[in-house]
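Feature request, filed as a ticket because there's no other form

It would be nice if the structure record came with a short human-readable summary line next to the tokens. Right now we just get the raw output. Example of a typical job, pasted below so the devs can see what we mean:
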Amino acid sequence: MRVDKELVEQLVVQILGQLNKADNVQNVLVLGSRVDAGQVALPQNGDVKVNMIYSGEAYSSEEIDRYVLPRLEVEDMADLAVGKATTSNAKDVLALLLAGKTVEIGHYAYSDFEHTAPSQLYQLYCDYSKTLSGFGLCPLQKRVQRVTRIQSKVISEKDIEKCSAEGITRIGVSNKALVTSLAEESARKFGIEIQRDKRGA
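Raw output as currently delivered:
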């Protein structure tokens, strides 16, 4: 009896994928190598375990729950906004978007130039971001609602960055707290809601 090795491998991948689903495992395809892993921080969601799979590794598209690109470069962003792709990462992203998949971005490279780029040029990339959002490309989703309270009288950019690193999605602050403009910008960048109340000093 002759056994088709490729068929057996595909069956094994599918069976393992189904077993993982039964064990509450979320499979995330990272569009990049393991070297890029440091740029992708996915918080754990209760009993759901995150299984990271990287480009070039064996997987079945049916078993993937989420697609994540660690960093979207400026050139790729401009290309994708007009429906084209030249780099391998951009081609992967475009193929997924055309297939109706959502692709999450860990970091938009254009945001690195917020304080140096001419305002009109920076606004162009902000507009690209909105266009790409309509295509199904969005900032990395935390997927876990985490709330904390900061008792400080002054909320700084470092406070926001620390909360982002911990996967915090909402921060409670006193109604009298001073939130610096850099902290507000950082909160918008990381998708963190700042909620004021009348408690505290």
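Something like this underneath would help us a lot:
The chain is about 35% helix and 20% strand.
The longest strand covers residues 25-30.
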